[in-house]
Amino acid sequence: MAISIKLNGETHKVDAEPGTPLLWVIRDHLKLTGTKFGCGVASCGACTVHLDGEPVRSCQTYIEDVEDAEVTTIEGLKSTPAQAVQQAWTELDVVQCGYCQSGQIMSAVGLLIENPKPTVDEIDEYMDGNACRCATYQRIRTAIVRASDIMEA
């Protein structure tokens, strides 16, 4: 099935079977590898992308569901919250192994778009579905607070 997908501001024609997860279209068809496969059941957050500005799990979002939507991957982040999050991640050396970090960043940006000044409890609640095997949760939380401060400055 040929489908048109708008990804990171560019329109692509993709030939994929109905029911193909967006994750595999992004990685296998469009060759963008920043979005990771973690669990395949939308529990870990490694595959998080933005669909019309909202974080979604691309492993459980199907290609036919995104035809008229704007999909943004880690490679396409350009907003002020995205820049602030990336700066904070670097300043605070958040990454350990790095595998989950694109999903963590995509969720953090989604949070800061929705709520530019979240409390620690709001951060914990919003980020709850993102797993980090290295347990860098404290650094992630601190970086989100720092990104909020960067945006406010």
UniProtKB/TrEMBL annotation:
Example of a GO MF term: metal ion binding
Enzyme nomenclature, EC number = 1.3.99.16
Which spans of this chain does the record mark as coiled coil? none
Q: Which principal EC class is assigned to this enzyme?
A: oxidoreductase
UniProt keyword annotation of Ubl conjugation present: no
Under Pfam families, the record lists: Fer2 (PF00111), Fer2_2 (PF01799)
Membrane spanning stretches: none
The family database entries (SUPFAM superfamilies) matched by this protein are listed as: 2Fe-2S ferredoxin-like, CO dehydrogenase ISP C-domain like
Q: Which key words are in the record?
A: 2Fe-2S, Iron, Iron-sulfur, Metal-binding, Oxidoreductase
Where does the 2Fe-2S ferredoxin-type domain lie? Answer: 1-77
Q: InterPro entries per the record?
A: 2Fe-2S-bd (IPR002888), 2Fe-2S-bd_dom_sf (IPR036884), 2Fe-2S_ferredoxin-like_sf (IPR036010), 2Fe-2S_ferredoxin-type (IPR001041), 2Fe2S_fd_BS (IPR006058), Beta-grasp_dom_sf (IPR012675), Diverse_Oxidoreductases (IPR051452)
Q: Which Gene3D superfamilies match?
A: 3.10.20.30, [2Fe-2S]-binding domain
Q: What is the protein named?
A: Isoquinoline 1-oxidoreductase subunit alpha
UniProt organism field: Pseudovibrio axinellae
Q: Give the encoding gene's name.
A: iorA_2
